[in-house]
Specification:
The chain is an alpha+beta fold. The protein has a single domain (4-33, 48-108, 116-460), classed as Outer membrane efflux proteins (OEP). Helices cover 62% and strands 11% of the residues. The chain has helices at 4-15, 60-70, 72-93, 138-204, 210-245, 262-265, 272-282, 284-304, 329-335, 354-420, 426-460; strands spanning 57-58, 98-108, 120-134, 254-255, 310-322, 338-346. The chain has a 4-stranded antiparallel sheet with strand order 2-3-5-6, covered by helices on one side. Strands 1-4 form a two-stranded parallel sheet. Helix 4 (138-204) runs antiparallel to helix 8, helix 7 crosses helix 10 (354-420) and helix 10 runs antiparallel to helix 11. The chain is elongated. The two termini are 22 Å apart. This is TolC family protein.
Length: 469
């Protein structure tokens, strides 16, 4: 389960994935632009390399399917579950009779007699069976407890699958955020390049000073640097996702860039209480905690069985022969044929307090299991409340940031026109551009924070991801 601290860390990472920002879909940049180019909407990959071979483009669904099928730790968890199934079969078989066959062949030499026919050869043969008739219900309790453990192991696998889903969704969204940051950084650098070229013409014409021209050149260099920072951030997040998928070093990690509609970012959320109620039923760790309490209560009954007597039934048949017995071996086998049956009653009287200690510890374990179950419910409540609040806040911020970006863009366009006419100076132009860039960044951050927390709420409710496919 994703903790509130982990969500906070993810939010911080989204905010620092790149200084540039975006207002919406991934855009393309003309190839003849002097600024750095950005990834196209079709794929998010390494745009600095000219690849000659086609590489796989990963969607979120494909990432999830691949991870759930191939994750090493998850496969180990599934093997542990299958191993527990074998333990259950063994526990059930312990209630059945045991049956063993045995034989012993012996030779005895008497060297002091110096008579070889005094040496003897013996053989015995037997079949023995045993059955526990009563042991205070310990065997049946063990079977029930093991069956519960099988279910617990199965839920643990489901819990691990959810953890993988959350990690993949986080990494994928971070990569998408970084990709849009690259696009916006490249577009910003392209605008700065055009401003610098226009300023050069004005400077040569004597309309602006060398200082104003130098300021715009500095702004262009800064924007190009931000492209490099954003591109590095994208590479890092793609690498994180690749490592989560445990891909080979030769595999490329190119991501499909979905077109995310505003309606998806601002999708209506169910009531918080309804989400939590659904999560209590859907999240496997909650059911696992409940079954752990039942298993611990069975552990008390199993410990109490130590105070009860045990009854064991044994039976067997046997025979044998001896070479120096005066009879043929075949006759001896028949004549020495025997049967036996026995009933053993074992009554515990004093066990150095082992049984009492076992019962007390089992009760404490049951209480700890109940507390752990309660803690799981409270942890889930905190996670749901945090994700819900973050989703609602991000949606509100997205609405406000979108409006702010629209006016900042309009202000920048007007300032740019006035700069070209000589009405505005360089400082005013750069300030307007930076305000627009900051507004775009706020839109981008709010957009992906809303998407992330909506997806977390979907996972908590046992739903498939729906907004970024």
């Amino acid at each position: 389960m994703l903790t509130a601290a982990a969500q906070t860390a993810t939010q911080s990472e989204l905010q620092t994935a790149g200084e540039p920002s975006a207002t919406g879909e991934v855009q393309t940049v003309p190839e003849d632009s002097k600024a750095e180019t950005a990834p196209t909407p079709r794929e998010i990959g390494d745009t600095t390399r000219d690849t000659t071979t086609l590489s796989k483009i990963w969607t979120l669904d494909e990432c999830l399917r691949y991870a759930l099928e191939n994750n090493i730790q998850l496969r180990q968890s599934r093997n542990d579950y299958l191993s527990g199934i074998e333990d259950t079969k063994e526990a059930k078989a312990a209630m059945l009779p045991s049956l063993t066959a045995s034989t012993m062949q012996g030779f005895t030499n008497y060297p002091s007699t110096n008579v070889s026919d005094r040496n003897t050869y013996t053989g015995t043969y037997g079949i023995d069976a045993g059955l526990t008739l009563y042991e205070g219900g310990k065997l049946r309790t063990t079977v029930k407890q093991q069956q519960l453990q099988n279910r617990i192991d199965e839920l643990s696998v489901a819990e691990s699958e959810n953890d993988i889903r959350i990690a993949i969704v986080q990494a994928y969204l971070q990569a998408l955020y970084a990709a849009e940051a690259v696009t916006v950084a490249a577009n910003t650098a392209e605008v700065s390049q055009a401003q610098r070229d226009r300023a050069e013409e004005l400077w040569k014409a004597g309309s602006i000073s060398r200082v104003d021209f130098a300021q715009l050149e500095s702004q262009l260099a800064s924007d190009r640097y931000q492209v490099t920072v954003a591109r590095t951030s994208l590479d890092n997040y793609r690498l994180q996702l690749k490592q989560l998928l445990e891909l080979d070093i030769t595999e490329e990690m190119n991501l499909a860039a979905p077109v995310i509609q505003e309606s998806e970012v601002l999708s209506a959320l169910p009531a918080k209480a309804a989400i939590y109620a659904t999560a209590l039923e859907a999240m496997p760790e909650i059911k696992r905690g409940e079954l752990a309490v039942e298993s611990a209560e069975l552990g008390i009954r199993q410990a109490q069985a130590g105070f009860y007597p045990s009854v064991t039934l044994t039976a067997g048949i046997g025979t044998g022969h001896m070479s120096n017995g005066g009879y043929e071996s075949g006759s001896q086998v028949w004549n020495r044929f025997n049967e036996n049956v026995g009933l053993t009653l074992s009554i515990p009287i004093f066990s150095n307090r082992k049984n009492r200690t076992a019962v007390n510890k089992a009760r404490l374990e049951a209480e700890n299991s109940r507390l752990s179950w309660l803690d799981l419910q409270k942890t889930l409540l905190r996670d749901v409340e945090s994700a819900y609040l973050d989703a609602v806040s991000a949606q509100s911020q997205y609405r406000a940031a979108t409006e702010k970006e629209r006016y900042a863009r309009e202000s920048f366009d007007l300032t740019q026109e006035q700069f070209n006419l000589g009405v505005k100076n360089t400082v005013e132009l750069i300030t307007a551009q930076n305000e627009w860039s900051s507004a775009r960044q706020e839109v981008l951050q709010a957009k992906y924070m809303a998407l992330l927390n909506i997806e977390l709420l979907n996972i908590y409710q046992g739903r498939d991801t729906t907004t970024i496919n």
